[in-house]
Each structure stands twice: as C-alpha cells, then as structure tokens.
Fold this protein.
Amino acid sequence: MPAPRTSAGRAIREELVGLAEAARVAFAADAVVVLLAEPGGEPRVGAAVGVAVTERPATVEALGALLPELGAAERLHEPDLAACALPAAAELARCGFGAALGGSLRIEDGSHGGLFALRRAAGPFANAALVSAFARQSAIAILQRRMRRRTASVAERLENLEALDQVALSSTSFEQLSVALNACVAPMFGAAMTAVMVWDEQRSILQMVAGSFGADEKTAASYQISVFDSSSNAARVFATGHGYLSNDAAGDPGILQDYVDAFGIEQLLSLQLAMGGRPIGVLHLANKPSGFTVADIQRAEQLAPRIATVVELSRTMFELRRKQQLEKVLATVAVSIASGRGVQDFLIPALGELSAAMEAGMIALVPIGSEPIVHRARRVPDELADAVLQEAKAGPGVRAYVIGPEKAGDPGRAVYCTPVHLGQQRVGTLAALRVRAEPFSQDERLALARVANLAALAWGSERYQQQRAELARLQERQRIADDLHDDVAQIIFAAQLNLDSILEHDGIAPALAAEVLRARGLLTRGDAAIRTVIHQLSRPAPSDLAGRLAAVVARIEEEFVMPVHLEISAAASAAAKDLSRPATDVLLKVAREALVNAAKHAGPCSVAVHVDLDTRGELRMRIIDDGIGINERRPGHRHGLASLRRSMQGQGGRVRVTRKAAGGTTVTASVPV
C-alpha cells in the first residue's frame, strides 16, 4: 500500500530517492523501489523511481509478498520472472516487469525491508553483487533519519575539536595533514586510522591524499576512483551524500577488495565531506575493534563540516604555496640570466627547485643534438625516466597526458612536454614527469612554459657571448697579424734592402760579403716565418671536421703535454663535408672525452686518432692508446662515454669501447654520412 502522507515519511523518501536513482544507474534497471516494514506492520514505500503512479499499488503489493523470501535469502536475483516458481513473481510479471533483483534491509531498531531493482525485459542485472551494499546504505540512511528525529535537539560535544582548527595552519603537506587528522579524529571513534579523499572536479575523480591510512606514497596515490564507479563505497558515498559502514570489509562487494588488502582494512566507515552544500571529498574511519554503528556515522556527521573546512583550507594554502615557490624559481632563473651566469651553473639547481615545488619525479631540458640536463628523484624507475626522455627527443610539440593507476600500489603517472624555441627554431624540449596520476595544473604548465622560454633566452645569451668572444679572438688575431705585417715584416724587409745595398758597394772584402750574405739569408728565413704566422692568424677558424678535430687534438696536447698522432683520410675528409653540425659536434665530444680519459687513466702511452670510411661507407673515428686503461672497479658513477653513446644514437650512429687483455683501449665512433 502507499506510504502514509506524514512529514516523517516524506523526509525518509527524500533521504532514499538519491540512493534509489544511484542504484538504478548501477544495475541498469528501469525502476528501483525501497520498501519499509515495521515489525508486524504493512510494508510501505520508502522510495520509488521509474514506477508510474498508476502501477505503483500493484507493484508494491507484489514486492511486499516477496519480502519474506528476501528476508530468508538476504538477496534475490530473478532474471526471468515469467519462469519463476514464486507466486509473488507471477504477480510482479503481470505488472509488466520481466526481471527483479532484491537486497534485504536490516535496520538496528528492528524494522526491516528490501531494495528492489526491476527491469521490463527479462535478463540479468549489471553489478548484481552490489545490491547488498545499496540495501545496507539505504538501511543506514533510514536509521539515521529516525535517530535525527529523536535527537535533533541534542548536540553531542566531541572532544578535541579545538585541535582541528590548528591542523590546517600547521600542515605544509597533505601527508602532515593526514597524520594530524588521524591523531585528532581516530581516537574519538575508537578507530585505528583515518583517510581523506579529495574531489577533482575537472576529471570527476576522488583521489586519496598522501599519508591516508598510514600507507606509503605509492599506495595512497594509487587509490584514485571515478565518482561514477558504483562498486566503490567512496564513490557511492560521495555521489549520494549518505554514509556507509561495513564491519566485514574483506567480504563486502561494495568495497574495492584490492584496497582492503593494500590498506589492511577490517572495519570501515565512510561519509561525505561537504562545505557550503558543495561536496569536496570523503572521510574514512577504519578498524574499530568493536565494530562501527549508525551512531558513529551520526557523530561523524557532526564533525564532518569542520573536517571539510580544514581539508579545503589546507588544499587552498598548499596551492598558494606552490604558486609562490614557482614564482620564486622563475625569478631566480631570470636574475641568473641577467647576471650572465652559465646555463649549467644555474639551470640544474633551478630544475631541482621546480621539481620540489611541483612534486615532480623528474624535470629535464632536452636539447636537440646534445645531452639533456636532468633533475631526477631517486624514486623514478630508470625505464620510466628513459621513456620520457626519448619521448621528449622525438616529440617536437606540446604533449600532456595522464595514465591512471591499474592496481593497488600503481600510482600511475602524468607527463607534460613543451618545446623550447629560440626565435623560430626549436632547440629542445622541456619535459616534466609526476609519478602519480595527477595532471599538471594550468599554473604549473605556465611555469614550465616560462622556464622553457627562459632556457631559450639563456642559450641565446650564452651563444651570443660565445660569438662575441670568438669575434674578439678573431679581431685580436687580425690585429696581431696587422702589427706583425706593419712593423716586424717591414723592418725585416728594410734590413734586407740595406744588406743588398752593402753588397752593391765596390771593393767590399770577400769575407765581409760572405757574412752579409749569411745575415741576409737569416733575414729571408725570418721574413718567411713571420709571413706564415701572419697568414695563419688572418685565416678564419676552421669549420670542417678535419680542422675542428685538429684544434681539439692541439688543445689536448697542450693541456696534458701528451703527443697525439692525427690521421684523416682524404675520403673521410671529403665525406665529412656532408655531415650535419650536430653529428660533427658529437664526434668532437667523443674525441675529447676519449683523449682526456687516455691522458688521465692510461698512464704513459702513445695515442692516435684515425678517421676514415669503414666497409659500410660510414664515417669512422678511432681513438687508440696502448696504455693500462681505466680501472673498471674504481668507485663512483661514470657518465662521459655512456652519455655520449646516447647522443650518438640520436644521430643514427654508435660508440664502442674495446680493451685488450695486455692493455690498450680503442674507442670507435661511427656515424652515417
């Protein structure tokens, strides 16, 4: 029969309509009806969605006849009412329904009832195992309403509420906030631990914050669920606004079992956190030895608004602090560029500060044709870091994506890449990796884009300074050449003329003439040497591989006082003219690294550099020494050739190192031309 038209009945219906709508979506049902039955009384409608007013009396009567069956079985799933042997099922089929799913309502005050999902056509229901969870949540909502009616004028005083007001002000991270909340709230309910989940409105997900349930960072970050996932107690509580409890979490189909195991949950109470009527997250209490009751939900709801305020205020403060830190990093980088500091000097510390502010596992500046500048946290796996770096090298445009958790303990990841442009030319990519499935915010993306622009400015400034230094060097060489030509060369030429005039005098003694001739020959040789120097000083710096490699060898010989034999075949010299500038730069870096290693670690030895074409037509450079080689057991991490090997791979080439048992090392770099 229809529910009595009382204010209490209307209030209960209002409590249950949202749950009934959520259940209809979860089960893909056409209708959901909640029936309430007092001990010895007639069943009445708690909520009914999807049932026309004209068919409601007959439907309620047929469902009321099913309540005894449901009470005995706890759960009914009849995918074909026409074939069901229960008499009440036939009545329900005559009402126009083909399938029914029911869960028993067990209420602590002795009343009972059932939640029924109905379909017009025969067939199984989606998520049928969740009917018990929806029925339990409906029973909790009914009992809460009755308890409020009896105790509406009594406001229970909860202890230690004043401590909550200090939590937001004293916490600097969600992990600290979780620890403080656990210390304040869990003892009030006899629970062992608490957890907070916050709502990401843009992605419609609930994310557990760090430190919840005392779990490690990865496990907490992996608990990320859609608010539309009806199999999650957190999603149902958030979507409906009704609390949920289970004192047998390990066997509850309405709680995600992976996370029951991951967090060690035995008993669980969950309720919505809302501020100003707007839901902002979910609060969980776990592991009360005596078990949770609806009275605990009632008490927790009195505390929830204050906790919601603390969580929302803390989240706002954390975001403001993050913005402040980002602005500080950007200001530091700008000042460093203006002061003329080298890119390597200020950029690596800046990337570290930027990573800390964004809680990013890695931030890397990946130039085209050279090694990346990387700040990386220890918790980032090698394969993940390498994958992001390779992606940054290959992808020239802006890229942003999030890969969500796949299981408990998998935090997922978020990646953002933005190009670095110098004028109209892309000179690299700035890549950021966060080892949890939280996308980079708009403020963080803007900060990364500004860092990319500042890095381009720094590179441009550094290149400008190098060009100025090179121009100054060339100008100084030309000045020296001009001075030698104008002064020394002219003086030598004048001396030659004077000696010639002496030789033209009649009567000069033969012995004296011989001495004058020898002096004139020395002057001629000096003049030739001076003009050679003038020619070399006036010649522009070499830009081809042969000239630049010769300059590298000369600097190594001068720096380490080590003779180096250089041999470049004519075919290799001709082929090197078609080699790209980045490939040439990498070859020169390999040569310098190998020569420095030989000078430092090979001991007294002879060193040779050979450049030729191999049998496949690739340009091949070999740096060969006959020294003792590098001690592979020496402590510390060596970056040199391993780093250059990756750079060479980016140019389609390779680097190999071979050592002989009796001593001697050969470094071979090959690149296609």
